[in-house]
Each structure stands twice: as structure tokens, then as C-alpha cells.
């Protein structure tokens, strides 16, 4: 069965983007060996993308082709008149356990929850996230969009992997906690 997986980077102080949504700070980290931090491998395990409207608008503002070519993409939004111009992209109006189960049933691979913070918190509150792959970047932004918007409900996660890179990046992999 498909899993809903969050693969995301955060600053040391817990921000996923600047206050204006920019993620330029991610490209400013020296990476002389051009590490992709497992991104290519992760992307091969994904056939469905889920993101919030604001994240979609940020991605559409990148000066590049649609980065999720060949992947079904779903944008969660209540905004009327939102136009989706990327390939294989559909609008979802309501997030619920049933809507995520439908995506899982229709997916042959896993589902990537791209962001943003509001959607991440809602998925946590609804107990929909199966895995969190979190990259802690050695950068302090001081302000921005937090990884967890508002006050998500308390959740326990199970650490299954921890890896540090020469660049100072730390990868943490958590699974949904299930008491044995």
C-alpha cells in the first residue's frame, strides 16, 4: 500500500521558507560534491504529489520547467478561481482521511507531501502522515514559514534513521509511532 511521506528541509530554527515563501537559502549552502541527499532515489519511489496552494504558487514561480513531470499532482485549496497550469495537476477541495485513502488506493508508488506548513500540520492532526524525512540545514533564518503551522496536536514519531553529511546537513527519518 502507498504511504504518505513528507520529504522536506528546515532551517535550524524550524523554518521551511522565508516569510515571502522563498527557499533561495537552500541553494546557498556550499555543496562542493553536488550531493542530492537521496532526492533522486526518493523521487523514483513517488508517483503522486500533494501540496498546498501557496506551495504550488511558489513552485510555479520558479524559473524552470514543472519539476514533477510524469507525476500526478494534487493541490489542496479552497480558493475560488485557482487556475492550475501544470501537467497532470488536479484540485482537491477537502483534506480528509478518505481523500488521502483514495489517493493511496489510486497510487502504485508512494505519495509525496511537498508542503507547506499548514498542510503538514493538518495531515499530522488527522494522523495521515506515514513518514517524515526531515533535512535540518545548518542555517538560521530568524523568521519565516514554520514547518508546523499553528499548534499541531501532540504526536509521537519513531526515529528509524539519522544521517549527517559533510555539508552540515542532518537527515532524520521518522515513522508513525505505533505501540507494540
Secondary structure layout plus pairing:
Elements (H helix, E strand, L loop, with lengths): L3 E7 L4 E3 L21 H6 L1 E7 H8 L11 E5 L12 E4 L4 H10 L3 E6 L1 H9 L5 E6 L8 E2 L10 E8 L5 E7 L4
Parallel strand pairs: 1-6, 1-7, 3-4, 3-6, 4-5
Antiparallel strand pairs: 2-8, 7-10, 9-10
Structure characterization notes:
There is one protein chain. This protein has four helices and ten strands, in the order ββαβαββαβαββββ. By secondary structure, the chain is an alpha/beta fold. It has helices spanning 39-44, 53-60, 97-106, 117-125, and strands at 4-10, 15-17, 46-52, 72-76, 89-92, 110-115, 131-136, 145-146, 157-164, 170-176. Helices cover 18% and strands 31% of the residues. The mean pLDDT is 92. The protein has one domain (4-176): Dihydrofolate Reductase, subunit A, CATH 3.40.430.10.
Entry keywords:
180 residues; 4 helices; single chain; eight-stranded mixed β-sheet; alpha/beta; Dihydrofolate Reductase, subunit A; two-stranded antiparallel sheet; 10 strands
CATH level-4 homologous superfamily? Dihydrofolate Reductase, subunit A
Bulk shape: globular
Helix content: 10-25%
The radius of gyration is 16 Å
Distance between the termini: 21 Å
CATH architecture: 3-Layer(aba) Sandwich
Give the helices and strands as they follow along the chain. EEHEHEEHEHEEEE
As for the CATH topology, it is: Dihydrofolate Reductase, subunit A
Instruction: State the helix count.
Output: 4
| Strand residue content | 25-35%
- Spans of at least 5 consecutive residues whose pLDDT stays below 50 are none
Q: How many individual domains?
A: 1
Question: Biggest sheet, open or closed, and with what strands and sense?
Answer: 8 strands, mixed
The strand line-up of the biggest sheet is 5-4-3-6-1-7-10-9
CATH class value: Alpha Beta
Strand segment count: 10
